[in-house]
Structures are given as structure tokens and as C-alpha cells.
Write a structure and sequence with these properties.
Blueprint lengths: L1 H24 L8 H35 L3 H17 L2 H6 L7 H14 L5 H12 L4 H13 L2 H25 L5 H26 L14 H9 L1
Helix pairs in contact: 1-8, 1-9, 2-6, 2-7, 2-8, 3-7, 3-9, 5-6, 7-8
Length: 233
Amino acid sequence: MLISALIFGLLGSFHCVGMCGPIAFLLPVDHKNELKKLGQITLYHLGRLSSYSIIGFSFGLLGRSLRLFGLQQQLSILVGVLMILVILIPYKTLNKYNGSRPIFKMVSKIKSNLGRQLKQKSPDTFYTIGFLNGFLPCGLIYMAVFGAIASGTALEGSLYMAVFGLGTIPLMTAAIYLGNFINLSLRSKIRKAVPVFVVLIGLLFVLRGMGLGIPYLSPREMTPEITAAKRCH
């Protein structure tokens, strides 16, 4: 499943450039010193990976709670179905039931802090910008969170989100160095491909949850906790 997270990040980074590109373009990097600039960009990415990992850890805990009740397979199917539904249901319909409005104030504070940080050039600034950037609402991050929940443990959820973040690094780095270099036509084609990939990942989660006995792809319906309990009896 980590491979899916990496590919998800690679494809999703085209969306990230559109959503978070303005932040990347405005990073106060030192354009005169390439080595220092590389270090600043690295700190920015480390900040993003840190926030993604925290998000994955938190939702991985939720997945572990369900796993302890023997619901790992059902959870995988549910996550896969949700991924597919989010893509198939029109955005206007989803927006009517949007539960994120209560956190708009928090998002506003994050953006305000980002604005202040973008005006500074201290070493910790770049890490802070990346860290705050990672918590901004993003549809693709929501999809990756589903994967973190289905991972079944806090550490695996954290790793899933971190690998997703690694997948976004190449294109986001190119955006910082080259600016808005992707033409609108290419962006449009990539954005059309991303939903297809999300549906495929959703189907993969459903297949995984069916427990068909296919190694790595669809293992038998049995979690480590349940297996250990049965052995004790």
C-alpha cells in the first residue's frame, strides 16, 4: 500500500502545485547561494512531511482502534468505497454536507501565520512554513488520510502519509526553482487522471478487504490481534 501512497503523491503533486504553488513561489529562499537555497527548501519539505506524519499518526490511531475490534478488513472496504464515492458524487452535493466549516477559523489562523513567516528568512522559518502548509485543507490529503486509517496502526498511518508527502517533493521542488512552469493544458490532463487513479486505489482497498487469500494484494481475513487471541485458547 505504500507504493500507492508514493504514486498518489507523485500524481497529486500536480494538484499541489496549483493549490500550494503560490506558497512555494513566495518562499524567501536565498537565490544567490545555491547551497543555502537547497537547505532552505529541504527544511520546507521536512516541515510538510512532519505535519503529514502527525496527521497520519492521528488517523492511524483511529484505524488501530477499529483493528482491535477485528474490523480491519471491513475498514479497508469502507475506506475504498468512500474514496470511490468522493470521486463519483458531484462536488456540489458533497459541499452541502461539508463538515469542515467549524475549522475555517483555525485555517484562517494558519494562513495568517504563513503570511507572517513568508516575510522572514531565519532558518526555522522554512520548516515552520512547510509545517503550517501541511495542515491546510486539501482534497488529496483527505484521500491520503483514508489510506492512513486503513493502514491499521498509528505508525503505519504516519508512514503512509510521509510516503505520500515524499511523492510530492520532486514537482514541488521544481516549482520553487522554475516557478509556474507547467502549462494549463498539461495541468488539465493530470487533474483528469488523478480521479481515475483515486478510484483505482479505492478498488484496491476494497479488494484488500475482501480477504481473497491473494498474497500482499488481498490477504485472508485475520488480524494479528485476533490470531494471537485464538492461539491462547
